[in-house]
Structures are given as structure tokens and as C-alpha cells.
Amino acid sequence: MSMDKHIRRGHTITFGLLIIFGIIELSLTSWLVSRFNLNHNYSSISERDRVRFVLFCSVWTVVLGLLYAGLFLYSATGSALTSIMSHGIFFLFTWIMWTAAAAAITEMLGGGLNCSNQREFVYCSQLNAVEAFAWIEWILTTFALIFILIRGIQAARRGDGYGGGLVTV
Questions:
Q1: Is the pTM here over 0.85, yes or no?
Q2: Among 61, 76, 129, 151, which has the highest number of CB atoms less than 10 A from its own CB?
Q3: 146: Cβ–Cβ under 8 A, 6 or more apart, which residues?
Q4: In Å, what is the CA distance from 144 to each residue of 78, 92, 138, 148, 159?
């Protein structure tokens, strides 16, 4: 039984979720960066830089996610950019960046903040939301990376190699 139909649907859903949550994260972090730049009210340089890194990860995910989703919808089987290897490289880099971003924000906040008892962070609720959406992006990229690895093993056993497409027809 061919999995192509399910892969096409799952690819669209996965990239759609990555892009939607990436846009939410992009909105949160760009607002925080603009506030930090305007008011200089970050608690430390580390807070400012970590939020900027999450902003970079959001831009990376949204822009390249849109590119990969568009290319897959246009030509799922006929392009090197829609190959298993290309997806694997993209998701590996994206996973590494989201791991670093989510861990950095979590470490900075000590695992999350109770906004009613803390006075250190000016934008407590927004930072909690940044942490939550960073972990959501990490979870999505983790599942996608695992799927790409499984699909790559299947393609290698089939004889297509890693340069083959995610779908066959």
C-alpha cells in the first residue's frame, strides 16, 4: 500500500502548523525585540540576545517553511529541493536551532515564570508565551525529523537513495 497520499497530506499539515506557530512566535519575539530596543528594559543582555535568537529561528522557520511547502505542492517528486536529503538537512538544522532556542529561553526563565510573584522580567506573560511556542516548534520539528529519517531508511532500502523524493508518484 502506497503512503504517498498520506505523506502529501501530512506534509501540508506539518508545514502549515510549523508556519502558523512560527508566525505566532515571530509576532511575540518581534514585539519583545522592539520593546527592548525602544525602552532598554530587558533584565540582562542575555535576555535580549536570547529573544533575538528565537526571533531568528522564527524567521528561518517561516521563510524556509513557506519555500519547502510551496516547492512540495508544485513538484513533490521532481526537484532536489523536495528530496528526502534536502528535507533532512533542513529539519536537522531547524531542530538544532529550536532545541537551542527553547532551552535558552527555558533556562533564562528557570522553567517558566509565575507572573504574580516575580519582578525581574518586565514582559513576564510574553516571555512565558515565547517559551511555550518555542517548545511547540521543537516538538513539531522533532516529529518531522523522525519521519524524514524513517522515510530516508525506506528509500535507501528501496534503492532510491536519500536523493529520492518523499513521494514516489
A1: yes
A2: 61
A3: none
A4: 21, 10, 10, 6, 22
